[in-house]
Amino acid sequence: MDRSDTSPPDHSCDYWREWISALADGEGTPQEQVCAWAHLKRCADCRRFYASLVAVKRRLRKVHWSQLWSEAIRSNVRLRRWALVAVGLALLLSGLASSYLVRRFWHPPTMTPLVAAALYHQHRIFPPEVPVNHHCPTGFACQVRSDVFVRPLPQMAVHTLGHLRDVGICHCSGRPVLIYRLSHNGHLVFLVLFNTDHLPIEPEPAGHLMFAGRRVSCSIVSGLHILFWRSGQQGEGIIVPQGRINPFLLMAKIPESHQADGP
Q1: Which tens digit of pLDDT belongs to each residue from 13-61?
Q2: CA–CA gap between residue 261 and residue 259 (Å, rounded)
Q3: Same structural domain for residues 167 and 191?
Q4: Alpha-helix residue ranges (DSSP H) falling in the chain
Q5: Is the CA virtual torsion 14, 18, 23, 24 positive or negative?
């Protein structure tokens, strides 16, 4: 049909419906639109048809796609079932992806020489954030065992290492660490205790040696000489300024298996 010519006014409404649909869609040439409007003025049925088209288009513009989708799901049982399957599959894939990313990129906290050096530099001036009253041996031991899950050193062993400044619990590494801050020959010494079930010592292929019946990890980081060793499930370490104090001499004064509860 060629709608570019002006059609006689006596055409049937079926002929004009195509023109009117194009007019409602905003299509057609200016001449076609003039002819369609001329017919609408003469025909009440076509005016109602045009009004219904305009009303439907207005309604469609107001309805969001999500509403149409939800209505379709509610009215179609099979579609609803497939939608539930799709949602469950998406949740499963999301969980698997999250689990893979956690295993691939997240590592639990470990005690490393860098962590020990950070503890020393952070608390070199300021004591650990949770102070412990080491003047009360019983309360001290109870708090340490419940908060850090370690055995405190015997009181006599601590005094042989130097002058005890203070004792506290630090959570800087993400797990609790018991820190003894001592002075030895005018230099600051740290003795750290931690539970290796919560904060394992980083395994290293090199840098281990046997000393005083214990396997010791020896590192020099950031001007500090750092020793780590294990006593059962308990991790222990000494941090001293490099070249100022021999940490092995201090380690030899710590009993291999200590059971006393004092600081």
Answers
A1: 878 888 888 888 777 788 888 888 888 888 888 888 888 888 877 776 6
A2: 7
A3: yes
A4: 13-24, 30-42, 44-62, 65-75, 77-105, 113-122, 137-147, 155-161, 247-251
A5: positive
pLDDT score of 121: 92
Q: Are 232 and 109 in contact (CB under 8 A)?
A: no
Higher-pLDDT residue of 11 and 232 is 232
Element (H, E) at 231: strand 224-231
Distance CA 247, CA 235 (A): 16
Instruction: For residue 86, give the 3-state DSSP assignment.
Output: helix
Closest CA to 239 of 256, 217, 262, 214: 217
Q: Which of 8-17, 40-49, 134-143 has the lowest mean pLDDT?
A: 8-17
- Does residue 256 fall inside a structural domain? no
Are the C-beta atoms of 170 and 119 separated by less than 8 Å?
A: yes
Q: Are residues 124 and 210 in the same domain?
A: yes
pLDDT of 125 > 70? The answer is yes
Whether residues 131 and 210 share a domain: the answer is yes
Residue 116 confidence (pLDDT)? 92
Tell me the residue range of the domain where 187 lies.
113-251
Amino acid, single-letter form, for residue 162: G
Which two structure tokens, joined as six digits, stand for 178? 């018991």
Phi, psi (degrees; rounded to nearest 5) at 206: -125, 170
Least trusted range by pLDDT, from 17-26, 140-149, 218-227: 17-26
- In angstroms, the CA 198 to CA 123 distance is 21
Residue 117's beta-bridge partner residues? none
